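During the reporting period the student researcher (J.K.) took over the structure-prediction task from the postdoctoral fellow and processed the backlog of single-chain submissions. One of the processed entries is reproduced below for the supervisory committee.
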Amino acid sequence: MTDDSEVANHYSNSALLDRIEAALSTAGVRRPLDIDTLALFDEFHIGGRKATDHLLQSLGISAGSKVLDLGCGLGGPARYVAKTSSARVTGLDLTHDFVAAGNALTGQALMVDLVDLQQGSILDMPFADDQFDVAYMIHVGMNISDKPALAAEVARVLRPGGTFGIYDVMAVDDARLSYPVPWASGPEHSALSPPQAYRDALTGAGFRVQTEIDRSEFALDFFARMMARQDKAGGVPALGLHLVMGPDTSDKIGNMVAALHARQIAPVEMVGVLGS
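J.K. obtained the following structure tokens:
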């Protein structure tokens, strides 16, 4: 079981923006910021930018779309959506430090006209009904126990016919994971669920599940390539996931990769259409 305070405590870091600014300076990055450079650390999910792009191809986002990024973090996917489609993207995240740093990066990327990140709970969103055409969440559901309540709240803010894309780490079996992992310091902070729980939550909220794809092979190849690059470079780069995940990044990723190899977990894409 998880609650908002536990999730916020896991991700909070008041020095996050300072650490990012220092790393950008060390790497010699100039302003305005380029979103491809930011993607080295602001798309902190399995597969990074490639995984984001793969999910977005199924969502039908265009320049006229109103898009909601659930659990937006630093806003990497939100900025990518806005840059590639000219859609207006609103991000919502529980963690103040992510939202503050993400809005600062959006400003330095000259994208405030298209991207706005706000603090709030996905289970009680500060939006009126029928506001968005598309919603997506990337590696968020692992922190939300009540999947039916999540799906119902997304259905509330989506317009009829709206699309909801999910890319989450999901449970494959009941074996115990080793902690920490990127989304949890211990089992009491984790809300891993199997794909069936997501399917049931979506259909219960009025969605038709359109696609479901297990991305495990992609994930294992991604991590193998990442480790090969680090070995060749002799260590982690200035701009990397450690900026967001902290000093125990290697432990978090190592435990997650071990669970992927053991088929305890799998990254899964799922897309639902409301009222179809």
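The committee noted the following: The domain at 4-274 is CATH 3.40.50.150 (Rossmann fold).
J.K. will present the remaining backlog at the next meeting.
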